[in-house]
Amino acid sequence: MTHELVTALGPLLAAEASAEAHASGAEPGDLEQAVWLRLLERLDATGPPADPRRWVRRAVRSEARRSSRRARAEQPYATEPADDGGTGPEQRAMAAARRRELHAAVRRLPGRCPDLMAALLSPEDLTYREIAGELGISQGSLGPERSRCLGCLRRLLTPEVAARRRRG
After folding, report:
1. 53: which residues sit within 8 A by CB, 6+ positions away?
2. What is the mean pLDDT of residues 59-81?
């Protein structure tokens, strides 16, 4: 009985959760999960609802309202962040060293890969169209070229990454 109910209600629940999620600020998957949990609790306590489709619609709306109320009640920490993002001097120095290693490896790539990867790593956040125009290649060939260059970069960096691991 439970399996048939889940199979029958799955598409309806997914559609209802997707429709209600945006207005409530919740993720559709979170709403679905909450409703499935409520349904399982109900099945255990009182059995299946008389009109399962109506019950699902009402349960989704109820969970969406609950999610919206919870989101409004949540307040950010005023004095202490939950995660400081690792912005200490050690973390900044290590990140800078990783960036230098990456850029050095990019310069050692073959062909036009150094120019392509430099454009992709640019702080200007260029679009594919801008990169293609800058490099004088078609926009359609940019994706395959990028994949090839990333493969070369991965092979180039693998020995360096493997050498840093501790053994034993």
Report:
1. 9, 12
2. 81
Give the whole-number percent of the chain exceeding pLDDT 70: 87
User: Quick one: tokens of 103?
Assistant: 């850029």
| Angle 149-153-159 from CA coordinates, rounded to 5° | 155
Helices (H), 25-88: 28-45, 52-73
Number of H helices, E strands in the chain: 7, 0
Q: Quick count: other Cβ atoms within 10 Å of Cβ 39?
A: 21
pLDDT at 107: 92
Who has greater pLDDT, 6 or 65?
65
Q: Biggest alpha carbon distance in the chain?
A: 69
